[in-house]
Amino acid sequence: MNELNHKVLVTFSDNYGHVSEIADNMSRKLIDLGLTVDTIDLERTKQKRWPTINDFNGVILISGQNKMWTFWNKKAKKFVTFYVSPFEGKNKVIGFFRSDPWAYQGISDPVKAKEKFGKNILKSFNFIPDFYDDFGPVLDFSRKSKLKHDDRSSLKGIAKEIGKKTGLEFEYKGFNDFRDWNRIEEICDEFAEKLQKGNSCSSCGNIIQKGIEFCTNCGNKM
Questions:
Q1: Residues 37 and 31: beta-carbon distance below 8 Å
Q2: Which residue range(s) make up the domain with 56?
Q3: What pTM was computed for the model?
Q4: 147-175 burial, b if ≥16 CB within 10 A, otherwise e?
Q5: Residue 127: which of 222, 196, 59, 35 has the closest Cα?
Q6: How far is 93 from 194, CA to CA, in rounded Å?
Q7: Which of 47, 50, 184 lies closest to 39, judged by CA?
Q8: Does residue 183 share a domain with residue 106?
Q9: Contacting residues for 177 by C-beta, under 8 A, at least 6 apart
Q10: Residue 40 φ then ψ, to 5°
Q11: Total domain count, the chain
Q12: Are residues 195 and 94 in the same domain?
């Protein structure tokens, strides 16, 4: 398999310092699975230096959201609009993921949180990626938290309500990690498998590796 078929771009846009940990974890896992991975921080990299995804077979984007009134932040939406959407449906494996304290619904109902995230993706970009999921939030109430004081107070109140309804216990002066690390690892396995397996030729049924434009068996355009 040539290098192109192993190459994945992992991008992330981080509001509070916890999305980058997911990006690092996924990048390491995908490398362990035999893929070549480039990782880009959209917040710290100027837009003119964002890479085109033309040279990648797989693209992963992980982001948080801006408070409660949107499902993703501005940099993530901009990257999809101008860099990912033009390549949708063109032999790219695409994964969109979220983790944010304001997406706290995922604590008590991760299935519903994922469904809502998927609907927002479809509404905003008019397509659904191969993979999407809400990985769950971090509620950091420690002194090192990047949450503003008012936001921290609001989220503490929300956490107390969730605790009353579900019986979950929170550290109201500490770090509460509700990210689903097992699911994150599963996604990496599934992503790599789909990327390496390729597509089935509509003409002869032969499996064609991602990035190949014509079937090697019958010559049909993929």
A1: yes
A2: 3-137+178-208
A3: 0.87
A4: beeeebebbeebbeebeeeeeeebeeeee
A5: 59
A6: 7
A7: 50
A8: yes
A9: 138
A10: -125, 125
A11: 2
A12: yes
Per-residue pLDDT of 52-88, as tens digits, reads 998 899 999 999 987 766 789 999 999 999 999 998 8
CB-hemisphere CA count at 13 Å for 14?
18
Same-domain pairing of 31 and 78: yes
Axis-axis angle for helices 181-197, 19-32 (nearest 10): 40
Separation between Cα atoms, residue 39 and residue 11, nearest integer Å: 6
pLDDT digits (tens, 9 = 90+) for 185-217: 999 999 999 988 766 566 654 556 655 667 666
Same domain for 41 and 95: yes
CA distances in angstroms from 107 to 111, 118, 140, listed in the order given? 10, 17, 14
The closest of 60, 151, 139, 85 to 107, measured between CA atoms, is 139
